[in-house]
Amino acid sequence: MYGRITMSSEAPKQKGDHMDEAFIIVDLHGMTRDEAEKKIEKVLSDAGSGTYQIRLIHGFNRGTNLRDMIYDSFRYESKVKRIIPGDNQGITILVLKELF
Known about the structure:
Layout: E1 5-7, E2 23-27, H1 33-46, E3 53-57, H2 64-74, E4 82-85, E5 91-95
Parallel strand pairs: 2-3
Antiparallel strand pairs: 1-2, 3-5, 4-5
């Protein structure tokens, strides 16, 4: 399923509480730049004060276009402290709050 949001814990949450997760994972595979940007903006605006990172999975081969958009569009976003690469080139992480 494209564009799903996966939470880091598997415990069920009440409606409206799901964006208070410490780590949010967003799958952007198959999205255009505009669709992905809107999705990321929505997740950022819904992210609670307990959210440390948003992990954006965009893929490598065709996802580099999305990666460039993420850096260009969100580097000056007030909620984003830093943008760092993930474990591989198909993942970009928006750091909202430092862990320590």
